[in-house]
Specification:
Distance between the termini: 45 Å
Number of helices: 16
Strand content: under 5%
Helix content: over 70%
Structural class: mainly alpha
Number of domains: 1
Number of strands: 0
């Protein structure tokens, strides 16, 4: 008995001393607090806003996510260069592209905004269209600064900003909802939450990194632009395809009315809460660690992914089962009887969310080993799978929202597993290359 106790104590000590574990705990701690904040505010917000208003907010968030390639994904490369000179020029390239993209988007919205939104079945967003440009810009700046902090492994600061942005956004939404601002309050709260983090990151960046600005010059930016062009050529369309695939249900649900979109939006948000606390944190820390390992030690990368996989399977199974068994009842109790249907949607979606939780972290190796082209092709196939799911539901089952979500959840589970298998395949190929070089 003493032997077992000492072994457990020894493993616990090693675990707590691990830099990876500490990093995950920092990020997971901050994410856990943000989700607690969400849990606290959600029953309040669902009583201040109608499902139809939530529906418009869900459409807004989906469109913003579609434009998450606004820096042509150059910001993803920021943690990778070995020296800070290259990294800061990559940040400069990212910001320049983001600024140009935002200006172009604003022009498109001004001249063709209503037509563009109509193509996405998002006509309800028409009077709020200029929020899209503001949202895209703030989220783009946040992503650039976030990736710089991942390069620095400033996980404690990242954790604090996540809590700050979440709390501020929920407070704004609550106050705006209380005074009857409706959709405007939801959208404004979303934008405020992003800008709060930017202020914190910029303050820290100025205090500790201001001497690095002299490394930025046009020649180095052009070099960085060319050196990491695969991120723009393959990662950008790949990201768009991936985002479109993920946001397609929102646009599909809009065919059934804003209230149905709101139900789905709340279900999708809430069902991700328990998984996000750990999964999102591990995914980002894994990327930071994998970027520092790079192609130099693929065996270490594989061992890290194997260990991660086993832990995620065990961690995610319990909240998934809870949602499947009592999801509708939980939603009715927490958010009111009018949100019962959202609980049914959550029950269906839980399978796909669990698959995402256990398989997606390892897929970040596509960026590290620079296999963006292969990931883009996989995302294209994934999009085709989702379109087939919704098309089949509409054609064979008279457009039933329930059937559409069941087909979507199943197709996404298959896609996440296929992504994991392909990621492992390329890790093994890198191991073989290293062995041959030796």
């Amino acid at each position: 008995m003493n032997l077992i106790y000492n072994k457990i104590k020894e493993n616990k000590t090693k675990l707590l001393k691990s830099n990876f574990t500490k990093s995950v705990l920092y990020i997971a701690g901050g994410t856990a607090i943000t989700q607690i904040i969400n849990v606290f505010f959600s029953p309040i917000l669902t009583r201040l806003y109608l499902p139809s208003e939530y529906g418009i907010m869900a459409i807004f968030s989906s469109i913003i996510m579609l434009f998450s390639f606004s820096s042509l994904k150059y910001e993803l490369a920021i943690p990778i260069p070995e020296n800070d000179k290259s990294a800061i020029n990559l940040a400069g390239v990212s910001f320049c592209i983001l600024s140009i993209f935002t200006l172009v988007l604003t022009g498109v919205l001004y001249f063709y905004g209503d037509r563009f939104l109509s193509l996405l079945d998002a006509d309800s967003m028409s009077q709020y269209k200029y929020f899209l440009s503001v949202g895209v810009f703030f989220i783009g700046v946040y992503q650039i600064l976030l990736k710089w902090n991942y390069r620095r492994k400033s996980f404690k600061l990242i954790s604090k900003t996540k809590v700050g942005q979440n709390l501020s956004g929920n407070i704004v939404k609550t106050v705006a909802g209380y005074f009857g601002f409706g959709v405007f309050g939801l959208l404004f709260g979303k934008i405020i939450s992003e800008s709060v983090s930017i202020v914190v990151f910029l303050k820290k960046f100025y205090e500790s990194e201001k001497n690095i600005f002299h490394h930025i010059n046009f020649k180095e930016m052009v070099y960085s632009f060319k050196r990491y062009k695969d991120f723009a050529i393959y990662q950008t369309p790949g990201t768009f395809l991936s985002r479109f695939k993920n946001q397609l249900p929102i646009f599909n649900m809009s065919l059934y009315g804003a209230s149905t979109v709101g139900m789905y939006g709340l279900a999708n948000t809430i069902v991700k809460l328990p998984m996000t606390v750990i999964g999102h944190s591990i995914r980002n820390v894994f990327f930071a660690e994998a970027a520092s390992i790079g192609k130099k030690n693929p065996i270490k990368l594989k061992n890290l992914s194997n260990s991660l996989m086993r832990k995620l399977i065990l961690i995610g199974i319990f909240p998934t089962l809870a949602l499947i068994i009592i999801g509708p009842w939980l939603f009715s109790f927490a958010f009111g009887e009018q949100w019962y249907e959202a609980g049914v949607y959550a029950r269906i979606l839980s399978v796909a969310i669990y698959s995402d939780f256990i398989f997606s972290p390892v897929s970040r190796v596509f960026e590290v080993i620079e296999k963006q082209k292969q990931k883009m092709i996989l995302d294209l196939l994934g999009l085709g799978l989702v379109l087939l799911s919704f098309g089949s539901a509409k054609y064979f089952f008279n457009g039933s929202a329930y059937v559409a979500i069941i087909f979507y959840s199943s197709s996404m589970s298959i896609f996440y597993f296929a992504t994991y298998v392909l990621a492992r395949f390329y890790i093994n190929k890198e191991i073989e290359l290293v062995k041959k070089e030796k």
